[in-house]
């Protein structure tokens, strides 16, 4: 990750208004108050607890157009004509000059059982300059870049042979930016592939659309119309590179997939049935996702796993546990059994050898090697289940999974009555709070029992900004992360949620999401940068630390990297006053009192709680690097107001 120096001059517009507002909500100290000097002693050789090696990770689900219209690189919106009940949402007619075309949804003819419908295009008027066909707007535009190859495909059925032209067109001018012509053949359903390249002078823009034009009068039925830009690691059916790079910079260790509410669906019919999300795209029907829109399942189970592989992280696999968001559930016993079997099959698809049924299926899908797995989560937020069935549902899944896969750790989504043999290894806790509430929660786990299940904070976020967190949220998040680090012997994993938001109007269902994007570009919120800083600078042990005299809204944690002998201090000053700190490093043997050390400081500052990043000001708040020099074992340091700071202090 690159850091840069930024101006802090944009701070005080409407200062009076903000001061009054924050005073009301309790975010400002009384006038005239001073930040008291704090004394911090770190016993660098006295490691009192381990830090989980997989503490920071990612949580994902189809929400806010995270995949379709987001990470999944598909550029065509509603490619399978399931966007709404009419099927044609987004698609339009091209009738240039005297060009004449019509299109209807054919509900009885499609290329596969999974995709039994098609869009029937009839062109009755076409000649040079009088073009006719279909247009697709993409997901709030189509990102086009110069000298780039775009690869596409579609299924078509036509009675008469003839050329079909596919082209990328600039909205404002009608300029053709790239095009390809496909020779259609009469007969049954057939898959056609095409590729087209932009010229070196094409400007970078998302204000473009796709057109499919028949060159002769005739009728063609179309299904699964796809167009892909280059993807991360050039994966076919892969992910947007810019979003993958953003995630990589977070130094994650795992990906919790596939949800969230997305795992459950609103009704039992909409459950996440992994078997419908694998194999050739034409055999994936897609499904109604709970966050209001249709999921094509182009991002299916294998794509989730390859996403993990590309980021070199492990999947945390959540299996459907027979409960739907609108409170319907499968009764424990025989009615639940098909879902238990599906979970066993799913784990086999992820981890099984190619000699197993589902391992062989994975190999047929193009990935012979099994994926690593350590944790399986059973359900999502089952405290919502008012029937009280989760204890028995969890037990039924746990017993079956443990019998077949004793090596995996099982995560329960709420505490359960522990049936013998079905005790959860880990509990998944979720927190969505305001900044003030998050500050108050920082010590939530300090005195928690260390004898029961471990904790996975599978979803958490400080929420007030929209669409992405503001600096007040980042302070809440950073304060919270000091608590995660202090308790990282108990908390094995933690992941912020939601991770992604398409910021276009109408794309978002849930406000305060870590990374914002549109068709062309992405930006990291202040909270995103706070996470990058925390996760990139965390050790493997927690040293004994004493702290006194700090202001109420000052938070800290310390971890030590045993391999490179560095103390990672996290300092979060959420108050309006500077926080002076007298740091004593105990245990630095043989250090001369005059010996000079250089610590590395990475700090993130916002002018107010409401200061933020956005699509138009993506780097208003970014980490800034500097060095801090000190002699011997004592370091005098002041953390500025509204600042999150990581100090890497060499211990040798
Ligand atoms: O992160 C958004 C939603 O919050 C998740 O889908 C759900 O698990 C939680 O309630």
Structure commentary:
The chain is α/β, with parallel strands linked by helices and 652 residues long. It folds into three domains: 1-72 and 430-499 and 511-652, Sandwich (Immunoglobulin-like), CATH 2.60.40.1180; 83-228, Galactose-binding domain-like (Jelly Rolls), CATH 2.60.120; 253-424, TIM Barrel (Alpha-Beta Barrel). Helix 8 packs parallel to helix 9. The longest helix has 16 residues, at 471-486. The protein is globular, with a radius of gyration of 27 Å. The model is unreliable at 1-32 (pLDDT under 50). It binds alpha-L-arabinofuranose. Residues 61, 259-261, 380-381, 459, 497-498, 510 line the site of alpha-L-arabinofuranose.
Task: List strands and helices in order, with pairings.
Blueprint: H1 15-24, E1 38-50, E2 56-59, E3 92-95, E4 100-106, E5 118-125, E6 132-136, E7 149-158, E8 162-170, E9 176-184, E10 190-197, E11 208-214, E12 218-228, H2 241-248, E13 254-257, H3 261-264, E14 287-288, E15 294-295, H4 301-311, E16 314-319, H5 337-351, H6 357-364, E17 375-378, H7 390-404, E18 409-412, E19 426-433, H8 435-441, E20 454-462, H9 471-486, E21 491-496, E22 500-502, E23 515-517, E24 522-524, H10 526-536, E25 541-548, E26 554-561, E27 566-573, E28 579-586, E29 596-605, E30 624-631, E31 634-639, E32 643-650
Parallel strand pairs: 1-28, 2-13, 2-21, 13-16, 16-17, 17-18, 18-19, 19-20, 20-21, 22-23
Antiparallel strand pairs: 1-25, 3-6, 4-5, 5-12, 6-11, 7-10, 7-12, 8-9, 8-11, 14-15, 23-24, 26-27, 27-32, 28-31, 29-30, 29-32
Alpha-L-arabinofuranose is lined by residues 61, 259-261, 380-381, 459, 497-498, 510.
